[in-house]
Amino acid sequence: MLRTSDLDLPKAGTFRVLPEEERELRVQLERLTTKDHGPVFGHCIKLPPHTLQKARDELNEREESREDVVRELQELVRAQADSGQELAQAVAEKVQGRDSAFFLRFIRARKFHVGRAYQLLRGYVHFRLQYPELFDSLSLEAIRCTIEAGYPGVLSSRDKYGRVVMLFNVEKWDYEEITFDE
């Protein structure tokens, strides 16, 4: 005779009741259009509520823990630098004086997993050390001029998911005006 205890039934889990506001935001995320997102260029003063909900759902980002996670990554950078390893010390040197927004880029890219964010940061610093010629002459002015010249083209509005869309038309690229490095 087969007993229930012999079956591989999923373990009972926990759940939470979603507040009405959160349910509405999740429904809104499914129906976004290009008009639901902020401008491509310029500063974003306040993120739309549906974007904050997406950050909670997809990245596990919480406003109340954001500063703690940034601090944890900063502490990991210091601890690794204390190990004496050359690249770890270079990472600590490159990020010295950077604000929390800089660290948040790496944390968000790795869905708030600090260890993986540190590995991404190491890769970032390593690449910049390997190819300094790509970054030495890089300036905001050069980037602005390149974009204004249409290399690449940037659509004036975001896609329905809030992403910036860039178009590269290699056929029209004037390599004497805009160099490969630019």
Automatic annotation (TrEMBL):
One of its GO terms (molecular function) is phosphatidylinositol bisphosphate binding. The keyword Nucleotide-binding does not apply. Residues 52-82 form a coiled coil. Keywords: Coiled coil. SMART domains: CRAL_TRIO_N. Residues 99-124 form the CRAL/TRIO N-terminal domain. One of its GO terms (cellular component) is membrane. This is Retinaldehyde-binding protein 1. The gene is RLBP1.
